[in-house]
Amino acid sequence: MIGFRFTDYHAPDQTPFDQLFNIFKQLLTYTSGDFNEAISWLTELDKEYGLTKPDYGIGDFIQELKDRGYIKEDQAGSGEMMITAKTEQSIRQQALEKIFGKLKKGKSGNHATRLTGQGDEASDELRPFQFGDSLEQISMQESIRNAQINHGIGEFNLTEQDLAVTEREHKTQTSTVLMIDISHSMILYGEDRITPAKNVAMALAELIKQKYPKDTLDIIVFGDDAWQIEIKDLPYLQVGPYHTNTVAGLELAMDLLRRRKQANKQIFMITDGKPTCLKENGRYYKNSFGLDKKILNKCLTLAQSCRRLKIPITTFMVASDPYLQEFVRDFTEANHGKAFYTSLQGLGEFIFEDFERNKKRNIR
Fold first, then answer.
1. Under DSSP, is residue 109 helix (H, G, I), strand (E, B) or coil?
2. Whole-angstrom distance, CA of residue 91 vs CA of residue 85
3. What is the 3-state secondary structure (H, E, C) of 299-326?
4. Which of 32, 113, 136, 354 has the fewest CB atoms within 10 Å, i.e. the most exposed one?
Protein backbone atom coordinates (compact mmCIF):
# COMPACT_ATOMS: atom_id res chain seq x y z
CA MET A 1 0.00 0.00 0.00
CA ILE A 2 1.39 3.39 -1.01
CA GLY A 3 1.23 5.94 1.77
CA PHE A 4 1.50 9.71 1.74
CA ARG A 5 4.63 11.30 0.35
CA PHE A 6 5.65 14.67 1.69
CA THR A 7 7.86 17.12 -0.16
CA ASP A 8 9.09 20.65 0.52
CA TYR A 9 6.51 23.31 -0.24
CA HIS A 10 7.58 25.97 -2.70
CA ALA A 11 5.33 28.97 -3.03
CA PRO A 12 4.44 29.78 -6.63
CA ASP A 13 6.52 32.54 -8.13
CA GLN A 14 4.66 35.78 -8.68
CA THR A 15 4.69 37.36 -12.09
CA PRO A 16 6.29 40.80 -12.48
CA PHE A 17 2.79 42.25 -12.80
CA ASP A 18 1.58 40.64 -9.56
CA GLN A 19 4.61 41.88 -7.63
CA LEU A 20 4.11 45.45 -8.80
CA PHE A 21 0.34 45.29 -8.41
CA ASN A 22 0.57 44.40 -4.71
CA ILE A 23 2.73 47.47 -4.08
CA PHE A 24 0.59 49.63 -6.36
CA LYS A 25 -2.59 48.82 -4.40
CA GLN A 26 -0.95 49.88 -1.15
CA LEU A 27 0.20 53.12 -2.74
CA LEU A 28 -3.33 53.79 -3.98
CA THR A 29 -4.59 53.58 -0.40
CA TYR A 30 -1.96 56.07 0.77
CA THR A 31 -2.67 58.46 -2.12
CA SER A 32 -6.47 58.22 -1.70
CA GLY A 33 -6.93 56.60 -5.11
CA ASP A 34 -4.80 59.10 -7.06
CA PHE A 35 -3.43 57.03 -9.97
CA ASN A 36 -0.83 59.56 -11.11
CA GLU A 37 0.63 60.03 -7.65
CA ALA A 38 0.70 56.29 -6.99
CA ILE A 39 2.51 55.62 -10.27
CA SER A 40 5.00 58.39 -9.48
CA TRP A 41 5.75 56.80 -6.12
CA LEU A 42 6.05 53.38 -7.74
CA THR A 43 8.53 54.79 -10.26
CA GLU A 44 10.63 56.31 -7.48
CA LEU A 45 10.60 53.02 -5.57
CA ASP A 46 11.68 51.23 -8.73
CA LYS A 47 14.65 53.60 -9.10
CA GLU A 48 15.71 53.02 -5.51
CA TYR A 49 15.02 49.30 -5.09
CA GLY A 50 14.96 47.92 -8.63
CA LEU A 51 11.44 46.52 -8.59
CA THR A 52 11.15 45.92 -12.34
CA LYS A 53 12.88 43.43 -14.62
CA PRO A 54 15.01 44.25 -17.67
CA ASP A 55 12.22 42.99 -19.94
CA TYR A 56 9.30 44.40 -17.92
CA GLY A 57 9.17 48.08 -16.98
CA ILE A 58 6.65 50.48 -15.43
CA GLY A 59 5.27 51.23 -18.92
CA ASP A 60 4.52 47.52 -19.42
CA PHE A 61 2.82 47.47 -16.03
CA ILE A 62 0.59 50.44 -16.92
CA GLN A 63 -0.38 48.81 -20.22
CA GLU A 64 -1.26 45.56 -18.44
CA LEU A 65 -3.38 47.50 -15.93
CA LYS A 66 -5.34 48.83 -18.91
CA ASP A 67 -5.62 45.45 -20.60
CA ARG A 68 -6.89 43.77 -17.42
CA GLY A 69 -9.46 46.48 -16.72
CA TYR A 70 -7.87 47.92 -13.58
CA ILE A 71 -7.59 51.45 -14.97
CA LYS A 72 -9.41 53.49 -17.58
CA GLU A 73 -9.28 56.96 -19.09
CA ASP A 74 -11.15 59.74 -17.36
CA GLN A 75 -14.53 60.14 -19.07
CA ALA A 76 -14.17 63.93 -18.87
CA GLY A 77 -11.79 63.71 -21.82
CA SER A 78 -8.70 64.89 -19.95
CA GLY A 79 -6.77 61.77 -20.99
CA GLU A 80 -5.80 61.07 -17.37
CA MET A 81 -6.07 57.55 -16.03
CA MET A 82 -8.27 56.53 -13.09
CA ILE A 83 -8.84 53.27 -11.27
CA THR A 84 -11.94 51.14 -11.89
CA ALA A 85 -14.39 49.30 -9.62
CA LYS A 86 -12.33 46.16 -10.22
CA THR A 87 -9.33 47.84 -8.61
CA GLU A 88 -11.43 49.11 -5.70
CA GLN A 89 -12.60 45.56 -4.97
CA SER A 90 -9.03 44.27 -5.26
CA ILE A 91 -7.84 46.86 -2.73
CA ARG A 92 -10.55 45.77 -0.27
CA GLN A 93 -9.58 42.13 -0.78
CA GLN A 94 -5.93 42.93 -0.10
CA ALA A 95 -6.90 44.75 3.10
CA LEU A 96 -8.96 41.76 4.18
CA GLU A 97 -6.12 39.31 3.63
CA LYS A 98 -3.58 41.58 5.29
CA ILE A 99 -5.62 42.29 8.42
CA PHE A 100 -7.91 39.31 8.89
CA GLY A 101 -6.09 36.57 6.99
CA LYS A 102 -7.44 34.71 4.00
CA LEU A 103 -11.03 33.63 4.64
CA LYS A 104 -13.04 31.19 2.59
CA LYS A 105 -16.38 32.47 1.44
CA GLY A 106 -19.04 31.10 3.75
CA LYS A 107 -22.65 30.24 3.19
CA SER A 108 -25.24 32.96 3.00
CA GLY A 109 -25.63 32.79 6.74
CA ASN A 110 -25.47 35.18 9.61
CA HIS A 111 -23.93 35.31 13.05
CA ALA A 112 -24.19 32.36 15.42
CA THR A 113 -25.76 32.86 18.85
CA ARG A 114 -25.54 30.78 21.99
CA LEU A 115 -29.06 29.45 21.40
CA THR A 116 -29.54 25.92 20.03
CA GLY A 117 -32.53 23.94 18.76
CA GLN A 118 -34.38 24.32 15.45
CA GLY A 119 -31.73 26.56 14.05
CA ASP A 120 -30.02 27.22 10.75
CA GLU A 121 -26.55 25.71 10.88
CA ALA A 122 -25.30 22.37 12.20
CA SER A 123 -23.01 22.41 15.22
CA ASP A 124 -20.62 19.73 16.52
CA GLU A 125 -22.89 18.76 19.42
CA LEU A 126 -25.09 15.65 19.46
CA ARG A 127 -28.09 14.77 21.64
CA PRO A 128 -30.75 12.01 21.85
CA PHE A 129 -33.68 12.16 19.46
CA GLN A 130 -36.78 14.02 20.71
CA PHE A 131 -40.29 14.20 19.34
CA GLY A 132 -40.47 17.00 16.80
CA ASP A 133 -36.91 16.67 15.49
CA SER A 134 -36.71 16.57 11.70
CA LEU A 135 -35.24 13.63 9.80
CA GLU A 136 -32.53 15.90 8.39
CA GLN A 137 -31.15 16.42 11.90
CA ILE A 138 -30.54 12.71 12.55
CA SER A 139 -26.86 11.75 12.44
CA MET A 140 -27.01 8.35 10.73
CA GLN A 141 -23.37 7.52 11.44
CA GLU A 142 -23.74 8.11 15.17
CA SER A 143 -27.16 6.43 15.30
CA ILE A 144 -25.87 3.24 13.65
CA ARG A 145 -22.89 3.26 16.00
CA ASN A 146 -25.28 3.50 18.99
CA ALA A 147 -27.36 0.61 17.62
CA GLN A 148 -24.31 -1.64 17.34
CA ILE A 149 -23.21 -0.76 20.88
CA ASN A 150 -26.69 -1.24 22.38
CA HIS A 151 -27.79 -4.34 20.48
CA GLY A 152 -24.61 -6.00 19.23
CA ILE A 153 -23.40 -6.51 15.67
CA GLY A 154 -24.85 -9.99 15.12
CA GLU A 155 -28.22 -8.67 13.98
CA PHE A 156 -28.78 -5.06 13.06
CA ASN A 157 -31.54 -3.40 15.11
CA LEU A 158 -32.15 0.37 15.17
CA THR A 159 -34.59 1.80 17.71
CA GLU A 160 -35.70 5.28 18.64
CA GLN A 161 -33.41 5.20 21.67
CA ASP A 162 -30.40 4.75 19.37
CA LEU A 163 -31.07 7.86 17.31
CA ALA A 164 -28.68 10.77 17.74
CA VAL A 165 -29.52 14.25 16.56
CA THR A 166 -27.16 17.00 15.48
CA GLU A 167 -27.82 20.26 17.28
CA ARG A 168 -28.43 23.27 15.10
CA GLU A 169 -27.43 26.79 16.00
CA HIS A 170 -29.78 29.69 15.56
CA LYS A 171 -28.42 32.49 13.44
CA THR A 172 -28.90 36.19 13.87
CA GLN A 173 -28.27 39.08 11.54
CA THR A 174 -26.26 42.10 12.58
CA SER A 175 -26.36 45.71 11.48
CA THR A 176 -23.08 47.53 11.97
CA VAL A 177 -22.26 51.21 11.57
CA LEU A 178 -18.57 52.06 11.30
CA MET A 179 -17.72 55.66 12.18
CA ILE A 180 -14.38 57.05 10.97
CA ASP A 181 -12.93 60.28 12.28
CA ILE A 182 -11.58 62.40 9.39
CA SER A 183 -10.71 65.49 11.41
CA HIS A 184 -7.35 67.18 10.88
CA SER A 185 -5.83 65.43 13.91
CA MET A 186 -5.88 62.13 12.01
CA ILE A 187 -2.76 63.32 10.17
CA LEU A 188 -1.43 65.71 12.79
CA TYR A 189 2.24 65.66 13.87
CA GLY A 190 3.23 63.65 10.82
CA GLU A 191 1.44 60.48 11.93
CA ASP A 192 -0.82 58.90 9.32
CA ARG A 193 -3.84 57.55 11.20
CA ILE A 194 -6.37 57.69 8.39
CA THR A 195 -4.74 55.04 6.18
CA PRO A 196 -4.97 52.27 8.82
CA ALA A 197 -8.56 53.33 9.48
CA LYS A 198 -9.35 53.05 5.76
CA ASN A 199 -7.69 49.64 5.57
CA VAL A 200 -9.74 48.38 8.51
CA ALA A 201 -12.98 49.72 6.99
CA MET A 202 -12.22 48.07 3.63
CA ALA A 203 -11.33 44.78 5.30
CA LEU A 204 -14.46 44.80 7.45
CA ALA A 205 -16.62 45.60 4.41
CA GLU A 206 -15.10 42.75 2.42
CA LEU A 207 -15.41 40.35 5.37
CA ILE A 208 -19.13 41.05 5.72
CA LYS A 209 -19.72 40.75 1.95
CA GLN A 210 -17.96 37.39 1.82
CA LYS A 211 -18.79 35.70 5.12
CA TYR A 212 -21.98 37.41 6.35
CA PRO A 213 -23.84 38.57 3.24
CA LYS A 214 -27.12 39.03 5.14
CA ASP A 215 -25.51 41.52 7.52
CA THR A 216 -25.45 45.23 6.80
CA LEU A 217 -22.55 47.65 7.10
CA ASP A 218 -22.99 51.41 6.92
CA ILE A 219 -19.92 53.64 6.92
CA ILE A 220 -19.97 57.18 8.30
CA VAL A 221 -17.21 59.77 8.28
CA PHE A 222 -17.32 62.70 10.66
CA GLY A 223 -15.48 66.02 10.81
CA ASP A 224 -17.34 69.32 11.21
CA ASP A 225 -20.37 67.36 9.98
CA ALA A 226 -21.11 63.67 9.41
CA TRP A 227 -22.17 61.95 6.23
CA GLN A 228 -22.52 58.45 4.88
CA ILE A 229 -20.16 57.11 2.22
CA GLU A 230 -20.34 54.04 0.00
CA ILE A 231 -17.92 51.15 0.34
CA LYS A 232 -16.54 51.96 -3.10
CA ASP A 233 -15.55 55.43 -1.83
CA LEU A 234 -13.19 54.13 0.87
CA PRO A 235 -9.93 54.15 -1.16
CA TYR A 236 -10.50 57.84 -1.95
CA LEU A 237 -11.18 58.92 1.63
CA GLN A 238 -9.12 61.92 2.81
CA VAL A 239 -8.72 63.91 6.00
CA GLY A 240 -9.99 67.48 5.86
CA PRO A 241 -9.38 70.71 7.82
CA TYR A 242 -12.14 69.68 10.21
CA HIS A 243 -12.92 69.71 13.90
CA THR A 244 -14.42 66.57 15.47
CA ASN A 245 -18.23 66.55 15.54
CA THR A 246 -18.74 63.21 17.27
CA VAL A 247 -22.32 64.19 18.05
CA ALA A 248 -23.24 64.47 14.37
CA GLY A 249 -21.67 61.07 13.71
CA LEU A 250 -23.62 59.40 16.51
CA GLU A 251 -26.91 61.01 15.50
CA LEU A 252 -26.49 59.81 11.92
CA ALA A 253 -25.48 56.32 13.09
CA MET A 254 -28.57 56.06 15.29
CA ASP A 255 -30.77 57.25 12.43
CA LEU A 256 -29.36 54.59 10.09
CA LEU A 257 -29.77 51.82 12.65
CA ARG A 258 -33.38 52.79 13.37
CA ARG A 259 -34.19 51.84 9.78
CA ARG A 260 -32.59 48.41 10.08
CA LYS A 261 -34.79 45.46 11.02
CA GLN A 262 -32.02 43.28 12.42
CA ALA A 263 -32.18 42.46 16.13
CA ASN A 264 -28.47 43.02 16.69
CA LYS A 265 -27.18 46.52 16.12
CA GLN A 266 -23.79 47.98 16.96
CA ILE A 267 -21.55 50.97 16.35
CA PHE A 268 -17.79 50.86 15.87
CA MET A 269 -16.08 54.24 16.20
CA ILE A 270 -12.46 54.88 15.17
CA THR A 271 -11.16 58.17 16.52
CA ASP A 272 -7.99 59.74 17.84
CA GLY A 273 -9.29 62.79 19.61
CA LYS A 274 -11.87 64.46 21.73
CA PRO A 275 -15.13 65.90 20.38
CA THR A 276 -14.59 69.57 19.60
CA CYS A 277 -17.60 70.62 17.57
CA LEU A 278 -21.39 70.91 17.63
CA LYS A 279 -23.88 72.26 15.14
CA GLU A 280 -26.78 74.18 16.61
CA ASN A 281 -29.41 76.12 14.66
CA GLY A 282 -27.26 76.03 11.55
CA ARG A 283 -24.17 77.40 13.32
CA TYR A 284 -21.02 75.59 14.45
CA TYR A 285 -19.99 75.68 18.08
CA LYS A 286 -16.26 74.82 18.28
CA ASN A 287 -13.74 74.52 21.07
CA SER A 288 -10.43 72.72 20.56
CA PHE A 289 -9.05 73.59 24.00
CA GLY A 290 -9.61 70.81 26.51
CA LEU A 291 -12.89 68.98 27.04
CA ASP A 292 -15.79 71.37 26.53
CA LYS A 293 -18.61 70.45 28.92
CA LYS A 294 -21.31 71.51 26.49
CA ILE A 295 -20.00 69.18 23.78
CA LEU A 296 -19.07 66.43 26.22
CA ASN A 297 -22.50 66.31 27.85
CA LYS A 298 -24.20 66.02 24.46
CA CYS A 299 -21.94 63.07 23.59
CA LEU A 300 -22.70 61.34 26.89
CA THR A 301 -26.43 61.89 26.41
CA LEU A 302 -26.29 60.19 23.01
CA ALA A 303 -24.25 57.34 24.47
CA GLN A 304 -26.99 56.79 27.06
CA SER A 305 -29.65 56.93 24.34
CA CYS A 306 -27.85 54.19 22.41
CA ARG A 307 -27.71 52.11 25.58
CA ARG A 308 -31.49 52.39 26.02
CA LEU A 309 -31.93 51.32 22.38
CA LYS A 310 -29.60 48.35 23.02
CA ILE A 311 -26.99 49.68 20.59
CA PRO A 312 -23.53 49.06 22.06
CA ILE A 313 -20.74 51.39 20.99
CA THR A 314 -17.20 50.07 20.73
CA THR A 315 -14.63 52.86 20.60
CA PHE A 316 -11.20 52.26 19.11
CA MET A 317 -8.93 54.99 20.42
CA VAL A 318 -5.74 55.48 18.42
CA ALA A 319 -4.26 58.11 20.73
CA SER A 320 -2.62 57.73 24.13
CA ASP A 321 -3.24 61.12 25.78
CA PRO A 322 -4.49 60.49 29.37
CA TYR A 323 -7.21 63.17 29.27
CA LEU A 324 -8.53 61.80 25.96
CA GLN A 325 -8.67 58.32 27.45
CA GLU A 326 -10.61 59.78 30.38
CA PHE A 327 -13.26 61.02 27.93
CA VAL A 328 -13.45 57.58 26.31
CA ARG A 329 -13.88 55.93 29.72
CA ASP A 330 -16.78 58.26 30.62
CA PHE A 331 -18.34 57.76 27.20
CA THR A 332 -18.02 53.96 27.44
CA GLU A 333 -19.50 53.90 30.93
CA ALA A 334 -22.51 55.94 29.78
CA ASN A 335 -23.17 53.47 26.96
CA HIS A 336 -22.14 50.29 28.81
CA GLY A 337 -20.07 49.61 25.71
CA LYS A 338 -16.40 48.83 25.22
CA ALA A 339 -13.23 50.75 24.50
CA PHE A 340 -9.88 49.68 23.10
CA TYR A 341 -6.76 51.81 23.35
CA THR A 342 -4.75 50.46 20.48
CA SER A 343 -1.81 51.27 18.29
CA LEU A 344 -2.32 51.77 14.58
CA GLN A 345 -0.68 48.41 13.92
CA GLY A 346 -3.10 46.50 16.14
CA LEU A 347 -6.27 48.31 15.08
CA GLY A 348 -7.41 45.73 12.53
CA GLU A 349 -6.92 42.77 14.83
CA PHE A 350 -8.86 44.45 17.64
CA ILE A 351 -11.84 45.25 15.41
CA PHE A 352 -11.87 41.79 13.85
CA GLU A 353 -11.78 40.03 17.23
CA ASP A 354 -14.54 42.24 18.62
CA PHE A 355 -16.69 41.82 15.53
CA GLU A 356 -16.36 38.03 15.72
CA ARG A 357 -17.06 38.08 19.45
CA ASN A 358 -20.19 40.18 18.99
CA LYS A 359 -21.62 37.73 16.48
CA LYS A 360 -22.33 35.40 19.40
CA ARG A 361 -24.55 37.83 21.24
CA ASN A 362 -28.28 38.16 20.66
CA ILE A 363 -29.95 41.35 21.80
CA ARG A 364 -33.64 40.98 22.60
1. coil
2. 10
3. HHHHHHHHHHCCCCEEEEECCCCHHHHH
4. 136
Looking at the DSSP bridge assignments, the partners of residue 73 are 81
Are the CB atoms for 314 and 340 separated by under 8 Å?
A: yes
Phi, psi (deg, nearest 5) at residue 340: -125, 130
How far apart CA 123 and CA 114 sit, in angstroms, is: 11
Rg, C-alpha atoms of the chain: 26
Give pLDDT tens digits along the chain (364 positions).
455 566 665 556 789 999 999 999 999 999 999 999 999 999 999 999 999 999 999 999 999 999 999 999 987 777 789 999 999 999 998 888 876 664 433 333 443 433 333 334 445 567 788 777 777 778 888 888 888 888 887 778 888 888 888 876 545 688 999 999 999 988 877 778 888 888 888 988 888 888 888 889 999 999 999 999 999 999 999 999 999 999 999 999 999 999 998 888 999 998 887 899 999 999 999 998 888 999 999 999 999 999 999 999 988 887 667 777 788 889 999 999 888 776 666 666 666 667 766 665 544 3
Tell me if 348 sits within 8 A of 99, measured CB to CB: yes
Type of residue numbered 165: V
DSSP structure string for 135-184: GGGB-HHHHHHHHHHHH-SSS----GGG-EEEEEEEEE-EEEEEEEE-SG
Amino acid at the residue 61:
F
Yes or no: say if 99 and 54 are a contact pair by the CB < 8 Å rule: no
CA neighbours closer than 13 Å in the CB half-sphere of residue 112: 14
